[in-house]
Every structure is written in C-alpha cells, then in structure tokens.
C-alpha cells in the first residue's frame, strides 16, 4: 500500500514540476528574440525603467493578433527602454481560473506601472481592473470605453483607461480587392471569429473592397460576386467551444469558394489553402493581423493586412513617461505615404507571392486611390443585409456609423448577429 | 456533397486512429485515459521530427513512439504497481499536454508540406464513392485499414479471441494458459501506437502545423466515442465520422439559424456526449434485446474486466 501511494506521489510531483517549468517559460518571456536590452539601459540612466504589463488573449507566437502585440512590446522596449511583462493565453478556455482583473492586480503588485489589455474579449476585466487601480494608466486595445460618442460603452469614470485601435477597414478593403482580382469562381469566403460590431465592420470592409475591384478593375457584374461569411465563435480555435477553422476553410473550398480571407487570429485558412494547392486545386488565402503571416504557405498567399501596433504604443507610453497621459479613444490609420513603414504606419498590407504581378499593380492602384481619397467605400447608397438602409445616397459614413455597424451589408451571405 | 463528405472522411481520419487504438487497449482491459495528452504530445513530436528530418514517415514513427511510451507507462503502473489506471492516465494527460506546449515552442508556425496527396489510380475515378474515399493521402487510407484490420483481428482471429478473453475473463484466460499480463502490455502499447499515429496525422495532415492546443479536447471526445462505439472498432469509427458530420452540420446551419449563430459552434461536442448518453441508456439495451439484429448498432457492454488489475499470488 505504501509503495502504491509513493508512486502516485512521484508521478504527481513530476507532473507539477513539468507544469511549473512550462508556465514559467510562457509567462515571464520579456524580450522577443532580436531585441537588445543594452539599448534600453543606455537611454534610461539610473532610474528604474517603467514596467508595463501586457495581457494577450492568445499564445504570443500565434502568427496573428497576439504576436503582433507581442512584437509591439519588443518595439517599445527597443524605442523607449521600458520593460514589458507578457501574460499570454488569457481567455476562459486556456485559463478558466484567471480573470483579466486578477491579472491586472497581480501585474501591478509585481511592479507594473502601466497595463495593456489587448483584446475586445477583455472589456469586463479591464474595466474592473481600471476601476480598482485608478492611478495606473491602462490601455484597452480595440475597445471603445473612452469614446464619448460610444453611448453605453463610454465609461467617463475610468479616467485611467484609454483605447487604441487601427483602422483595419483599409487593410481589409485591400484584402478584398486582392481576393476579387484573383478569384476564378467569383466566390469568396470570410473566415469570421465571433459576431460583434468590430467583426461586422471588418467583414463588410472586405466585401466593399472586393466589390469595388470586381466591378471597376475586372469590369464584372457586382451581382456575380459571391461572398459568404462563416463564424467560428471565437478569435481562434477552441475545440468544444468554437467550430474548427480548418474544417470551415475546407468547407469553403468544397463549396466552390476559391479565396478564403481570414478574420481570425490564427492561420488555419492559409494552411488549408496551401494543402489544397499542393493537391492541385487553384485556391488562395489571405491571413490577418501579423506581418509575417504568409510564411506558412507563401505560394498561395495573396498578402496580409496587418497591425503594426508599435508606433501607437510608443506614442501612448511616451505620454505616460512625460506625465501627460490622458484616457483617450484613438483610431489610428495607415501612413498613406508608405503603409508598410514600420515606424509610422499602424496598418499595413504586405502583398503575397500568390498575387500575380498584374493584380499587384491593380492593388497598388487601389491603395493609391484610398490614400488620396479618390476611393471612399463607406459612402451610400449602402444597405444592411436585410435591406434596411445603412447609408443614404451620397452619405459618407461617420466613424461612429462604421464602428457600430449593426449588420453585414446587403449581398453578403452569413449571420449578422 | 461529395466534397463535403470527402472532407468529413479526411478530417475524421485522425480521430479514427485514436478510437481504434483505444478500443484495442480497452478490449484487453486497460483504460488509457491519457489520450488527450498523448495525442497532443505525439502531434508535437510528429511535427517536430518531420520538420527537422524532412521525412513525414519519421514524423509518424516518432508520434507513434511517444504514445507507445506513454501507454507502456500506463500498462506498467497498472500491471506491476497495481495503480488505478484512471488516476495514472489523468496525471499523464496533464503531463503530456504541458510537455507538448513546452517542448513544442520552437516549432510553432513552422512551415512543412505535410502528407503528400495521393489519389488511388482507378478507385478514385469511381463515381461518387471515388472522390469521397480514394482521393486523399496515405494517412487517410491508413485509417480505413486500421479499422478493417482491428475488426478482423479482434472478432475473426484466434489471437483476437485471446485478446477479448484477457479483457473479459482474465482468470479463465489464465486457466487456459494465456499470459494475461503480457498480452495486456502488448495491446496497450499497440493501442498507444495508433493513438500516436492519430496525433501525428493531426499535425502532419488534418491540421497541418504545430501550435499550442492543436488537438485540445479531441482525446476526450475519442474516449467518449469508444464508449459510444460499444468497444467495436467499426462502430467507433462510425462515431468519429458522425462527430465530423455534426461539426459540418453546425457550420451549415449557421446561415439558416441566425439567432443561434453564436451557440451552434459549441454544439458538436455537446451532441456527441448526448449521443453517448442515449446509447448507454437502459432502454437502448432493451431495444437491443428485442431486436437482436440491431444490437450491435444500439448498445455495447464494456469488457467485464476493464480497468482492473490481474494477478495470481
């Protein structure tokens, strides 16, 4: 009997040891490879560097949304000499016992003087955390709690919680354009995460870009462009909670769609397209979020609309260092002079090797049109999916109208709510 | 329609390996509860090996090897140490999952071609059936083979009769001169090999690539499907396909049930557990008694000696 329990104990201890090692490795990663901490120590002299806690919803190496934030953290360390502490995989599936406000409190207890909560999913947690620690500046990325026009979402009481988000609508329009120029079947699929105002406006932006290029550059009838949106249920695959994005992507291709545009944080759509292409099918994909996202299947990648959070985060952290941080809502755009400038442009689009040279030129033409304002796609007449008007004839959408889109647009197939 | 069915068959292939492997182990009386962890660790090891060596085959070998080692540990703990199989399996699940996450870090998001497509000449051209079953790759065809071989071995061979004896009446098997514990070792490890192949076929084919949580919860659903399948490899494989079909259904219904669009993604796992409850209810057994021909389809009893240790003092 004694022998029996000593074995149980041994196995249990082993398991705990390994689990502990594993957690250490993922929780306390501070510097991304390639960043030099020496640069940091030279810019700040004797004073302790500002410690910033960054909370990610997915793994920090997801080749998508979370990795884009992690890299902005490394950029902050390089540019401002601050110290970034990352906790990744903060979501109810990966860490059911952890809430965002707990993480906030813990990070502050460990010396963090500022917090970045980087997912729309963190609304409740970061608002609680901000209320509990009113002296610590915090940013909720992709949120709208600091936007006076945002109605119920506006939280004027949280004077330490600012928001920042990129105008990814442009990136998505470019993606839609590349997809519409490339498709041979005229059928596009959008791999959607969960359904909310943000994801509706981004899916709709893809559709608007696709429609523009389909009609104006290819000269096709807009009625012939098919656009289907399927929602998996969260920002990335959680078996048992979401649909499997691999399966959704396969289903898109099975039903005649030949370009899949991803709206989720991870790269399943691209990987499936790569596998299908290897089997001889003429299919393409456009991933999302992260500049390097095409790497897993470059040959069929038409490019990637990505976030470059670095410049915005540097502006915000600089304001904290200078002592003039204000809880503001910021919706930054691309630097139209060069949307891929890592130091100035918050939104970019890297064209992928799968895009033909001829179509690449047209995409450039489209980007130039967006840049000089000659192409503005959020202009009426535009109807919502059920036919109710979204924008009247000639009406230009306000930021508020775009941010809070209530439905998908007319012509898009898929659930709106 | 063919394309959708073909995708279900291809996507279920990994799960099919896992349920067949677990069925074999449980038939011999050993519950390998570590599936969720073994599959994950094998998926990681399979991808890492294939990526490093450039050989898909070595990836599968490595995946199989890892799960065989885990299965051996469970057999050892159960047979030699007489520990509770459930407890050991559960601890190993946690251990393997964390190990996979920890060791797999350098391989996240790496590019690898995966199992090359290979249509079977001739068979692939059969109308309707061809595209569904014979336009995949060796990993998918292997899953068909695993089901067929397991069926014939367990139910149509003398060795298979021994295997059943070891799981049903170990004392009687022992009395007939069968080396119960040796066979339990063998079949647990053989089952483990299939579980490992399941893992490798996730990371090298079904969900090409490695990322954290690549196969989360699929081990648990495989364990449920083994029970659903009544410890019969063919029925278990049917369960794996049914699960795939439920996932596709959840997807296909989305545009038609907009009010449920946010809930539908969660339904496949729940429906599968529900189906399991249905077949394990008493009334399905009574139905089986009344219509003996349907019995195999409706209910199945666990091997009598499942989860117990056997020893002779």
Estimate percent helicity of chain B. 55-70%
Q: What is the helix/strand order of chain B?
A: HHHHHHHHHHHHHH
Integer average pLDDT of chain B: 91
| Estimated share of beta-strand residues of chain B | under 5%
Mind telling me which CATH architecture of the largest domain in chain A this is? 3-Layer(aba) Sandwich
Task: Walk me through the structure.
- The complex is a heterodimer of chains A (417) and B (313).
- With 417 residues, chain A is of the alpha/beta class.
- Chain A has helices at 2-27, 37-43, 65-80, 100-109, 123-132, 168-182, 197-216, 245-254, 268-278, 310-321, 357-372, 399-403; strands at 51-55, 83-87, 114-117, 138-141, 161-166, 187-192, 226-231, 259-262, 284-286, 303-307, 329-332, 347-351, 382-383, 389-391.
- Chain A has 12 helices and 14 strands.
- Chain A has a 6-stranded parallel sheet with strand order 2-1-3-4-5-11, sandwiched between helices.
- In chain A, helix 6 packs across helix 7.
- The longest helix of chain A has 26 residues, at 2-27.
- The radius of gyration of chain A is 22 Å and the shape is globular.
- Chain A starts with a helix and ends in a 14-residue tail after the last helix.
- Mean pLDDT of chain A is 90; it is low at 1-5, 8-13 and 15-45.
- Chain B is an all-alpha fold.
- Chain B has one domain (2-298): ABC transporter involved in vitamin B12 uptake, BtuC (Orthogonal Bundle), CATH 1.10.3470.
- Chain B has 14 helices and no strands.
Quick summary:
The complex is a heterodimer of chains A (417) and B (313). Chain A has 417 residues and is an alpha/beta fold.
Ordered list of secondary-structure elements with their pairings:
The complex is a heterodimer of chains A (417) and B (313).
Chain A: H1 2-27, H2 37-43, E1 51-55, H3 65-80, E2 83-87, H4 100-109, E3 114-117, H5 123-132, E4 138-141, E5 161-166, H6 168-182, E6 187-192, H7 197-216, E7 226-231, H8 245-254, E8 259-262, H9 268-278, E9 284-286, E10 303-307, H10 310-321, E11 329-332, E12 347-351, H11 357-372, E13 382-383, E14 389-391, H12 399-403
Parallel strand pairs in A: 1-2, 1-3, 3-4, 4-5, 5-11, 6-7, 6-8, 8-9
Antiparallel strand pairs in A: 10-12, 13-14
Chain B: H1 2-27, H2 35-53, H3 56-79, H4 85-103, H5 129-133, H6 138-156, H7 158-168, H8 170-175, H9 180-206, H10 218-228, H11 233-253, H12 267-279, H13 282-290, H14 295-298
Helix pairs in contact in B: 1-6, 1-9, 1-10, 1-11, 2-3, 2-4, 2-9, 2-10, 3-4, 3-9, 6-7, 10-11, 10-12, 11-12
């Amino acid at each position: 009997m004694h022998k029996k329990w000593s074995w149980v104990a041994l196995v249990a201890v082993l398991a705990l040891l390994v689990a502990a090692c594993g957690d250490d490795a993922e929780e306390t990663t501070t510097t991304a490879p390639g960043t030099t901490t020496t640069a940091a120590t030279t810019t700040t002299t004797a004073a302790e560097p500002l410690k910033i806690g960054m909370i990610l919803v997915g793994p920090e190496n997801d080749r998508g949304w979370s990795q884009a934030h992690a890299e902005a953290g490394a950029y902050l360390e390089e540019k401002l000499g601050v110290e970034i502490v990352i906790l990744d995989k903060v979501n109810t599936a990966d860490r059911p016992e952890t809430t965002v406000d707990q993480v906030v409190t813990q990070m502050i207890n460990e010396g963090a003087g500022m917090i970045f909560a980087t997912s729309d999913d963190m609304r409740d947690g970061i608002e609680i955390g901000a209320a509990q620690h009113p002296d610590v500046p915090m940013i909720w990325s992709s949120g709208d709690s600091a936007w006076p026009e945002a109605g119920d979402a506006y939280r004027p009481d949280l004077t330490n919680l600012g928001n920042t988000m990129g105008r990814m609508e442009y990136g998505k329009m470019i993606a839609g354009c590349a997809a519409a120029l490339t498709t041979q079947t005229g059928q596009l699929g959008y791999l959607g995460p969960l359904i909310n105002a943000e994801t509706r406006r981004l899916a709709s932006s893809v559709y608007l870009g696709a429609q523009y290029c389909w009609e104006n550059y290819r000269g096709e009838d807009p009625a012939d462009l098919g656009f289907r949106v399927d929602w998996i249920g969260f920002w990335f695959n959680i078996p048992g909670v979401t649909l499997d994005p691999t399966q959704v992507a396969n289903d898109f291709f099975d039903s005649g769609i030949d370009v899949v545009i991803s709206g989720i944080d991870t790269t399943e759509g691209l990987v499936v397209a790569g596998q299908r292409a290897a089997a001889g099918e003429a299919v393409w994909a456009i991933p999302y979020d992260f500049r390097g996202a095409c790497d897993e299947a470059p040959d069929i990648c038409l490019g990637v609309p990505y976030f470059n959070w670095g410049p915005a985060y540097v502006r915000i952290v600089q304001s904290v260092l200078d002592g003039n941080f204000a809880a503001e809502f910021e919706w930054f755009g691309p630097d139209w002079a060069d949307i891929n400038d890592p130091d100035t442009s918050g939104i970019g689009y890297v064209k992928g090797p799968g895009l033909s040279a001829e179509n690449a030129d047209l995409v450039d033409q489209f980007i130039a049109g967006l840049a000089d304002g000659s192409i503005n796609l959020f202009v009426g007449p535009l109807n919502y999916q059920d036919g109710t008007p979204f924008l009247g004839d000639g009406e230009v959408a306000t930021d508020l109208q775009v941010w809070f889109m209530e439905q998908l647009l007319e012509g898009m197939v898929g659930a709106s709510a | 329609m063919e394309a959708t069915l073909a995708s279900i068959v291809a996507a279920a292939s990994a799960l099919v390996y896992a349920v067949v492997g677990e069925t074999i182990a449980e038939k011999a009386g050993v519950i390998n509860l570590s599936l969720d962890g073994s599959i994950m660790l094998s998926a990681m090891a399979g991808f890492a090996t294939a990526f490093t060596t450039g050989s898909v085959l070595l990836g599968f070998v490595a995946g199989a090897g890892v799960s065989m080692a885990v299965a051996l540990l469970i057999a050892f703990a159960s047979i030699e140490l007489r520990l509770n199989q459930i407890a050991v399996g559960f601890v190993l699940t946690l251990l393997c999952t964390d190990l996979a996450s920890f060791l797999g870090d350098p391989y996240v998001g790496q590019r690898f071609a995966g199992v090359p497509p290979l249509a079977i000449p001739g068979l692939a051209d059969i109308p309707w059936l061809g595209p569904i079953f014979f336009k995949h790759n060796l990993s998918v065809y292997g899953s068909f083979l695993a089901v067929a071989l397991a069926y014939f071995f367990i139910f149509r061979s003398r060795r298979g009769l021994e295997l059943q004896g070891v799981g049903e009446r170990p004392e009687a098997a022992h009395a007939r001169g069968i080396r119960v514990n040796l066979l339990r070792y063998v079949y647990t490890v053989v089952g483990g090999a299939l579980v490992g192949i399941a893992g490798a076929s996730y990371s090298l084919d079904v969900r090409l690539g490695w990322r954290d949580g690549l196969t989360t919860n699929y081990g648990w659903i495989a364990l449920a499907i083994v029970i659903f399948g009544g410890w019969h490899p063919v029925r278990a494989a049917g369960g794996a396909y049914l699960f795939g079909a439920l996932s596709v259904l959840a997807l296909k219904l989305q545009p038609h049930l907009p009010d449920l669009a946010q809930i539908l993604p969660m339904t496949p796992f729940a429906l599968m557990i529900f189906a399991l409850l249905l077949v394990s209810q008493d009334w399905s057994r009574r139905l089986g008694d009344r219509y003996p021909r349907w019995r195999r389809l409706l209910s199945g009893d666990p091997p009598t000696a499942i989860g117990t240790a056997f020893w002779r003092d």
